[in-house]
Design goal:
Strand content: over 45%
Structural class: mainly beta
Distance between the termini: 64 Å
Radius of gyration: 17 Å
Order of helices and strands: HEEEEEEEEEE
CATH architecture: Sandwich
Length: 145
């Protein structure tokens, strides 16, 4: 009987989270001693209502915030976002130079290939768990040697 209850609960949870799909989640690997990093991913809303992200947390960092790069006085700056709206049937990409999750005060060094969990909070009070892989930043086509 307990197995049946666990199975039913897992099916309900799977259906609930199937409306929001997160792919390509990575946390940027930086040199040892750098206390902050960023997380990137794509998030798709398959529901028929707006999904509104209002925050994030991660047990391996003291603080996590939603940020975006914006142009201020002809300079790009990071700015914390109070919310990100994902419209029905739309995807939002968190990527370098755009929306991202800033992870402040890493509690331990991260290792390439390591999996970490980030939790996104929605305005409706739901939590979305993301498993992200720690990876080196990809080389930019515009990098100088």
């Amino acid at each position: 009987m307990l197995r049946l209850i666990v199975l039913l609960c897992s099916l309900v949870t799977g259906v609930l989270y199937a409306e929001i799909i997160v792919t390509d989640a990575t946390v940027r690997l930086l040199p040892p001693g750098v206390p902050n990093t960023a997380a990137y991913f794509s998030i798709q809303n398959n529901s028929d209502t707006n999904q509104i992200l209002i925050g994030a947390s991660a047990d391996f960092a003291t603080k996590a915030e939603i940020h975006n790069h914006i142009l201020v006085d002809d300079m790009m700056r990071m700015q914390q976002q109070s919310e990100v709206v994902i419209q029905p049937s739309e995807s939002v990409h968190f990527s370098p130079g755009g929306l991202h999750i800033m992870l402040f005060g890493l509690k331990q060094p991260l290792n390439e290939g390591q999996s970490v969990t980030i939790i996104l909070q929605t305005k409706e009070g739901e939590s979305i768990n993301i498993t992200a892989n720690v990876a080196r930043p990809k080389a930019s086509a515009h990098s100088h040697h």
